[in-house]
Task: structure prediction
Amino acid sequence: MTLEEEKAILSSLESDALNGQVLIYNQVKKIVEEKLKREVSDDYIWDMFKRHGWKKKVPRPSHPKANREEQEENKKNFKRTWYPNH
Result:
């Protein structure tokens, strides 16, 4: 596949990605395979992303400055029932 064809595929998906819709590599792989009418490797898709400046964005599992001990202490002492204030 030429660079122009790759760019055309990714530009057609770019608006969905920028609108916050989840765009996963399996979706792109399926579209590329339909266009080429054959299977492609996983590495091809990841290399294509890299060639065109696409990056993998995922939410981080926790804040880098989070204090794990403080969180556990808060879980132990957290009030589990709520009563209306009068």
Summary: The two ends are 70 Å apart (CA to CA).
